[in-house]
Amino acid sequence: MPDTLLQPDRGQPARTIDWVAPDGYDVWLGQQPPRVRIALAAQRFTGKTGAHAIYADNEDVRAIVVAKAAGPWTLARLVEALPAGTYRVAAPIGDAALGWLLGQYRFDRYRKAEDAGPRILLTADAAGIEETLRIAAATRLVRDLVNTGAGDLGPAELEDAVARLASEHGGMLSVTRGDALATGYPMIHAVGQAAVKERCPRLIELEWGDPAHPRIALVGKGVVFDTGGLDIKPSAGMRLMKKDMGGAAHALALAGLVMAARLPVRLHLLIPAVENAIAGNAFRPGDVLRSRAGLTVENTNTDAEGRLILGDALTKAGEGKPELILDFATLTGAARVALGPDLPPLFTDDDALADELLAAGIALDDPLWRLPLWDGYDEMLKSDIADMVNAPDGGFAGAITAALFLRRFVPAGVAWAHMDVFAWRPAGKPGRPKGGDAYALRACFVVLKQRYGR
């Protein structure tokens, strides 16, 4: 998806897209020549809100879209239907430019690319072009990483992705791999130790920015494939587990947005990258794991591995004394049962942070829904032999107890939010095809800009 798909309008030759408010459609139609009215009538186009039509006018393509406001997906369905060419919208388009770009996204790594040709949009909002392109690129990065098969995306490939980001923005990369994790990051090591040597576990870190600036940490779950471990998943449950590194993809993409915008922060990106594989040395149900924080964890389910690797990563993040930690993880099926695929649960004890994230999500059509860190469920994490279990019996409040587990590894007094993202769209929507996708990414970026923007 080239950056040339969105350009400043300098009067270049372009086809016209008319943007009409629903209550203005009849007036607009009355101003059109008979040939246009006939063309729209032939399509039985009535100007319904959200509808669009493409028609020929004077031997050229023209389009109309009827919409109340410029939401991010207003032009997404239209651009998917348009032929290649350059177009101009005779109205302010705002966030709709993002849908124009993402409506042209295709994941073609494993098949011949569709030759639809570029659809270029000219916009008078030249000041917003650069950031819109960056957000589209960040979304595309999440989609590409999640859509890539696990055979082509292991811990090493995630490390490569972070290395490219560090090189592009002048960040400092550090990686702890394999058996070197055993003492400093024992839970990351335990979860990933059964993988083959080439896919050994690692903690990938990137630091960027002036150390004098406020320190923030972004943490992403990087389970590149999840068999469930010895508590093996059924085949249906394993089918999409290439996406279990979706949290890492979100954290990586958000870090890229922060650095590209040059927000005045000291950024710390942490991605614990593992494959939860099965072998003779796989960690077992009943094992008691030590953590970087010093807490011991009775492993009651090897398929609740994401919270284990995040525990060590969150501990490391907290050691830097950040004022804010955001973590992203494809953590629980319980979150999907509660809220479905489109609505990521948000967990935080910080009411101000919650309000900011929820408001940004509504404004950007990138929503979250706050679920409680209910202290009364903390007792579900009790163990008879260790400081805690990783997965309580009974299955009650699974998303909440997973978030409570993570909270044990976040330093007191640090603003922290946990997003239990799905990272996958089971059914396509305009601008959002079936497959890997970013959730709450734009909302989080806006909140960071509001808090730390120049």
Task: Based on the model shown, name its key terms.
six-stranded mixed beta sheet, nine-stranded mixed beta sheet, 15 helices, 454 residues, Leucine Aminopeptidase, subunit E, domain 1, Aminopeptidase, 20 strands, 2 domains, alpha/beta
Description:
- With 454 residues, the protein is an alpha/beta fold.
- It has two domains: 10-119, Leucine Aminopeptidase, subunit E, domain 1, CATH 3.40.220; 134-452, Zn peptidases (Aminopeptidase, 3-Layer(aba) Sandwich).
- The protein is built from 15 helices and 20 strands.
- The strands form four sheets. Strands 7, 8, 9, 10, 11, 14, 15, 16 and 18 form a nine-stranded mixed beta sheet that branches. A six-stranded mixed beta sheet has the order 1-6-5-2-4-3.
- The two termini are 30 Å apart.
- The model has no long low-confidence stretch (mean pLDDT 96).
- It comes from Sphingomonas liriopis.
CATH architecture assignment name of the largest domain: 3-Layer(aba) Sandwich
* Percent in strands: 15-25%
Broad shape: elongated
> Major beta sheet, specifics?
9 strands, mixed
Classification by helices and strands: alpha/beta
Mean pLDDT, all residues: 96
Beta strand count: 20
The first-level CATH class of the largest domain is given as Alpha Beta
Radius of gyration: 24 Å
- Count the helices. How many? 15
Low-confidence stretches: none
State the separation between the terminal residues, measured CA to CA: 30 Å
Quaternary structure: single chain
CATH H-tier superfamily of the largest domain: Zn peptidases
